[in-house]
Amino acid sequence: MAKPQYVQQKRSLISLILNVTQLAMICGPALLLMTAPTVTVARTMETKRLPRSYTDPNVPLGPPPPPPLPPLSTSVDTASASSPARRFDYCAMAAEEANANNGIVPYKAARGCYEMFEFDPLIRDQTVKSVRANLESFYVFYDIAKSPPNMENSDLKPVDLSASLIALGNTTFRDDYSFHAALASQISQLQDPHTTYKSMCYQQFLFIQPISTYGVYEDGRNQVKVATVLNKLDPRLTTSLVDCEVTQIDGQPAFDVVTKFASTKSYSKDRGVRLNKAFSYLAHDRTGSAYDRYALGTFAQRTKVPSNATIEYKIDCSSKLSKSAAALTTSSKETPPLQTTLVLAWSALDATMLPYDDALSYRQQFCSQNSIQTVKKFVLDTASADDFGAGKTELHSGRKKSKELYRGSYASFHMLSDGVTAVFRLGTESPNKQESYKAGFYKNIDNGFAAMEAAGAKKLIIDLQNNSGGIICWGRYVLQTLFPSTVDSPYIYNLRASPLAQALARATFTYDQDVTSPYEGLVDPTTGEEVSNDSWMNPGDKLHGREGYFSRKVTDRFCGAVDDIKGAADDALFEAEDILILTNGYCGSTCAVLALQLHERYGVRTVAVGGHHGQSMAFTSFPGGAVQANNTLWTQRIQKVFKSLPLYHRTSDLESLLPKSLPANGQLAFTFRQVMSASDETQVSEYKRIPSEFRMDYTSARFRMPSVLWEDVREEVWGVTKPSELTEDETEDGQSTVPEDMVEEGDEPTGEDQGEGEVLGGEEDEELERAAEEADREDLEWLQRFESQSK
């Protein structure tokens, strides 16, 4: 077999690595929340509650709350004059509590701060008008959202965006927060994670529970179990509760409660995927360390204010106590209670990036049109039981832990106990923005594949669980590495050809606006050349079963690094039949497009894990296409392009369609280009549900230990293979050495593939990047992340 192109071409990559260095993460100190002493929970059934003064928003700490603040459209000076300082101020309370308690804010203070701002009809009207203008002219699924196709295991409902936004614009709300929350909820009904609205005024607190949960199918039934505990938030909790079953939440069956919660979310059009996202999950580390991170899941971590101040959990540890201690992962020396009932309060973490003292300064810093759009990010940090860097090799039921071949900031590579099956665990295609961790995506992939080749891998599991996407050319690089003979552009798009879009496309090429225009840089997939006029957009084409007009098919601009590794089919390290894709369904955006290309083009088989037992599940989510995520920059660009048109082309009708900037601090994102199916060029990938070929359930061992899941997947699809003998490349501790010809450490990724203000698959709020030193592997901690995310 010829030497793989990803090794031969490594030097040519260095010249391409230029632009991502402009992305930066502002780093701060760790916020340690898991170091408080633990307290043993009694072994009797008992309901334990926190004082009402901490949890009940109706119990004030000071004087009665004041009337709402004046509308946001009122100037700060005028508002200050009409709001005497002696009135009780929940935002001031939140600031004081955050300063005194390492950023932890009581639920009632955070909620009270949000609800202090008076509803402003002017803000409502201007916001709704701007959102409508953008979606009606540019949202590529605007028409299909009104009459979506039937999709298995989905509860997708028709959404008439214009009608629903008009109705919202005629509604009066209790306060400003309620309006913005209603608008966000309306957009989320599309179940398109690329298309969202959020007011940054109300993203400044992250509401968390001190217990997170995960879902399994064991003993013939769906179960909810304790994934993590945060005893700094509630000292009654001990790690002995970890892996105990949560039987009820607020008096209802726990699994039903989480399922109902997940049904309201927009993470996927598939019910099972939404359920997986609601639960805690073990995420690939973004720093290159040998262990991984737990994310809380969206049930226990929310940006929207929870409706109640507390949640009641009924916890049963009898099953855990009856099993062998070796079967589970907790190292706690505490003995858990047989049963207990806990009433746990929501806490809010202060995510603000600028100081504030009261409601007026809060509004000025975070709510006005030109205020900051950045918030701190948080993620639960813990070592997994399957610590790949540790010397221990035994796993659940006596099986061997996988050997880690190579790990970088974006992906890790492992060898299973058979010595034949490798695992390529790809956590993201989104750049790690922290300066000290810019390891380089291309280097990570090249080194990992070289390590697999050196180890003699013959089969490959590609683990794409909880991968929310990133830069499209990074996904293409992975595809090209796996199948070097891919010669044509694999990702084909088209765009909405609305009257305004057609006018902007005309101006782009007729009046030399290609630098500014969002329509520049597109490529004709039939010729490989960049489009040089607007004939691809005007007069527009009709698509089967779709309303309105669409552009001809286009693709992305040239990806230099991808072209460098093109080669013959013999250069591929694995045959298609020897590759598996493993996801929990939450493989979105660039990840989804990559997985679909592997499956539809090359016949790579798929495995989905989790969801609802016995129900089919899609192995990808929201492959929709490129997303426009910066309202301010987007509006400025299209207005500039429009104004380049002669006056006789700038009709009043077209002028009325131009979106204006949001009147308050907010972010509107929407799918701008739609990906077409690789196997059916008339089908939009977003609405083409492809179920996985193999289905597996999570168990406690599979949730805690990736190696157990990987071994089970291998046995399910390929059967049991005899373990191979150690090779000369393996060290005594079971870890494989890496080839000497790997790409050097100084390499960095290029950002040439991503247009300004236009990204594919930005990560969701709860999926965050590592920005601190490694934590003690025996403890659970909260680490505070800071990320600059100007959109």
TrEMBL record:
Bias (Acidic residues): 741-768
Coiled coil: none
Transmembrane segments: 12-34
Domain of life, per lineage: Eukaryota
Region annotated Disordered, chain positions: 48-79, 721-791
Comp. bias intervals (Basic and acidic residues): 769-791
Keyword entries, A-Z: Membrane, Transmembrane, Transmembrane helix
Extent of Pro residues compositional bias: 60-71
The keyword Transmembrane helix is assigned to this record: yes
PANTHER family for this protein: PEPTIDASE S41 FAMILY PROTEIN (PTHR37049), RHODANESE DOMAIN-CONTAINING PROTEIN (PTHR37049:SF4)
Name the record gives this protein: Tail specific protease domain-containing protein
Species the sequence originates in: Linnemannia exigua
Organism lineage: Eukaryota, Fungi, Fungi incertae sedis, Mucoromycota, Mortierellomycotina
